[in-house]
Recover the amino acids of this structure.
């Protein structure tokens, strides 16, 4: 697995999560455009457009956002930027 020096999460992602209120809570199920592509692009850039697992070159079209610690076991980390990577 490739070592990834994690950067700060994109500010639009931070702002989106900060919109939480009594009627709405950010979750992986509602994570979509425009925030999701912004996060995906940030992950690709910080990884040098390299899959964190196999080392192959990737693009947004050939990759997806993966959780280091699975959402099923760690639901509280689903939207933690430090738990997100891009992989093929």
């Amino acid at each position: 697995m490739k070592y990834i020096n994690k950067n700060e999460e994109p500010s639009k992602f931070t702002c989106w999560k900060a919109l939480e209120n009594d009627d709405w809570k950010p979750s992986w199920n509602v994570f979509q455009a425009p925030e999701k592509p912004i996060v995906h692009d940030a992950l690709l850039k910080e990884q040098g457009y390299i899959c964190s697992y196999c080392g192959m070159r990737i693009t947004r079209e050939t990759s997806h956002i993966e959780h280091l610690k699975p959402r099923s076991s760690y639901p509280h980390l689903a939207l933690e930027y430090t738990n997100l990577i891009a992989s093929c």
About this structure: The mean pLDDT is 96.
